Amino acid sequence: MRTGITALPTEILLWIFHLLSSAGRRNPFSMKHYTSHINNPHLCDCDHAWAPEIFPSRCTLFPYAQSQVCRHWRDVLLMHPTFWTRVIVSRKPGHHTPPKLFEKYLQWSRDLQIEVYVGSVRDERLFPSERPLVREYTKILLPHVRRCNVIDYEVQCSTSLPCLVADLRTMLPFLESLKLKSEQIMDSEDPPTEEYPTQGFHSIGQQIAQTAQRLTSLNHIALNGRNFLLACAYIPELIMNNGSILVENYRRSLHLHPEIDSIPFQFLRMITLLKRVKEIRFVDLEFQAPEEIRTEIIDADPPPLTDTVALQVDKIELNNVHPLMVIQFMEYTQFAVQTLVILDSINFSQAFPNVSFLFRRVELRHMEWNAIYFFLWHWNGATLSLRDCPGLTGDVIHGLGLPSSAGRLMPLRELEIHSCHNFSVGCLKEMMASRHRFYKNVSEGQFQSALLAFQAEVVPKLAVRGAKEHLSDEDRSWFNRLYSLCHFEWDTLDDNLAEAVLENDTEDPTTGDGYSHIQEELDGQWYTAPQLVVDYWPLREYRRSPSPADESDDCESLFSMDYDADFFLTDEIRAMIHDPSDDTMDLS
User: Fold this and answer.
1) For the chain, which residues make up each domain, given as ranges?
2) Residue 256 CB neighbour total at 10 angstroms
3) Quick count: other Cβ atoms within 10 Å of Cβ 469?
4) Please, what is the angle between helix 71-78 and helix 10-23, to 10°?
5) Which of the chain's ends, N or C, has fewer CB atoms near its CB within 10 Å?
6) How many CB atoms lie under 10 A from the CB of residue 556?
7) Cβ(342)–Cβ(316) below 8 Å
8) Residue 37 has what DSSP assignment?
């Protein structure tokens, strides 16, 4: 005798639905995660991705599929509003959520706190109906917005996003996460048409500013550039005290929104609002014309800065932002010791020779040789990571081992190179050997300056990941002989684990105490008195003819530059670096 699914007792159904409800709170991963990333966890970024191409499919999410099985199942689901507190608005072709059904979902959750996700089409084509459809979703959401703890929009065009001032006027007391993201900056076929004139728009914004209260529960925010500027002007409480902030997609030159043009934007005010944020990401931005850059173009000492802001940020990423915006960050900001600065696809200009990058840890991504050269010229930190940088050539690697005319060597403590393929093992060995010789001569007393001793540091931690070539046994043995190299890793593109991990003592086995006194001096001076005067990078002071192996015209032009004689290396330092009597660092 067959028994239909409607014969299941209500208690059993509720037990099953509760299990599905708790499992459905986890963000689904793509099939790639289970086929590749499980065995390669260092490649996995799935837990940072919302996977909108998966979410819009309502048939895979609870309780939408179960509510379509039969009337009895739907009636059981409607008995418990907790099942409807995660509302998914599907915009996948063939699975669009009708606005009236979206309104029912909100009603079924009754007065409970809710999470609302409006998915993206994820298609190369532009859909002219996107903006009116998304606006209809927003209009339906407005009466329920006060009980939202998650609002997540991911649309195709920035003009389709709701406006913080015109649409989301009500303060959100329970809001924990706010995301207003788009794939593109604008939809040229559907320009924005505001419901309010500019004067009325600002009047609404001022009313919001007067009644706004600090949002203590909000810990993550992601905004397009327009809404971020509106938040800075009218709702600063939306930005302050956040755990992380992502701002993306805005170009001042497009003149998309006339109300933005009349807002007095101050970069220093924006930095002040961000001073307690722990993680900041700025992606594809060009804000209003920056205030006057205080770093003079002429080769002179920059004026003292008395109005800088001390950020408590742990990580800040600037990705494809205007170079002047990066310069302003450097001028107005004091970074904490633990801050990691990520610079991605930044096209630096050579027009600001006196800018100083005063932070200890940096990661450069997708940078060309001239941008890497400009940055290292003005940076004197301790931890350097380069990832997917086609401009990391052998000549740039070579320059990391050269001291300046003043005898200073970049005090690198950690160097990580990831998926950069335009240099050889020989270049890396030459750089390490050059730093080793400098380190050895300082320790033997050839230079008595405490500053030189502070600067004399071979790279204690070196990691090369995703290299094109395997490390030979001979090269591995060479790195192993570097007693000052405490940690070394080398793996190739097809390796899952590092081929070599060396854990050595910093003590020289031939002399007993070795260089422990210099190590102590380094530890004592670096953490208590980090150097604030950034010296010019050695490539500015060192000029050589391009080697026959150099095939890049960029490298040839770099080393054919004419510099003043004052910037060249002194004979004493040249002799120290290229001492023919020192055969301990044979590169063969």
Assistant:
1) 352-588
2) 18
3) 12
4) 70
5) N
6) 13
7) yes
8) I
DSSP state of 85: S
DSSP state of 379: B
**What H or E segment, with its residue span, contains residue 153?**
strand 148-157
Residue matched to tokens 């709701």: 162
Answer yes or no: is pLDDT of 305 > 80. Answer: no
Positive or negative torsion for Cα 61, 66, 68, 73? negative
Candidates 374, 370, 339; CA nearest to 354 is 374
Which residue, among 338, 337, 332, 368, has the nearest Cα to 350 in the 3D structure? 368
Residue type, 117: Y
Residue among 164, 190, 173, 329 nearest 263 (CA):
164
- Give the whole-angstrom CA distance, residue 465 versus residue 568: 34
SS (H, E, C) 518-579: HHHHHHHHHHHCCCCCCCCCHHHHCCCCCCCCCCCHHHHHHHCCCCCHHHCCCHHHHHHHCC
Q: What angle do CA 578, 579, 582 make, to 5 degrees?
A: 125
As given in the structure block, the two tokens for residue 2 are: 């067959």
Amino acid letter, 526? W
Number of CB atoms found within 10 A of residue 461's CB: 15
Q: Residue 59: what residue type?
A: C
Q: What is the DSSP letter of 400?
A: T
Q: Which residues, other chains included, contact 11 with Cβ-Cβ below 8 Å and sequence gap of 6+?
A: none
* pLDDT band with cut points at 50, 70 and 90 for residue 128: low
Q: Rounded to whole angstroms, how far apart are CA atoms 464 and 416? A: 6
Tokens 């260089």 -> residue: 515
Residue with tokens 């005290």: 241
Kind of pairing between the strands at 487-492 and 461-467: parallel
Look up residue 93 and give its two tokens: 């072709």
Contact status, residue 222 vs residue 178, Cβ threshold 8 Å: yes
Q: Quick one: pLDDT at residue 186?
A: 60
Angle at 233 between CA 228 and CA 234, to 5 degrees: 100
CA distance 438 to 434: 6
Residue in the structure block whose two tokens are 């940072």: 48
Q: Is the pLDDT higher at 508 or at 163?
A: 163
- Which stretches does DSSP call E strand in 34-144? 86-89, 114-118
Q: Are 194 and 166 in contact (CB under 8 A)?
A: yes
pLDDT-wise least confident of 56-65, 283-292, 322-331? 56-65
Q: What is the rounded distance in angstroms from the CA atom of residue 467 to the CA atom of residue 8?
A: 59
Tokens of 543: 């000029």
CA 51/CA 26 separation, integer angstroms: 12
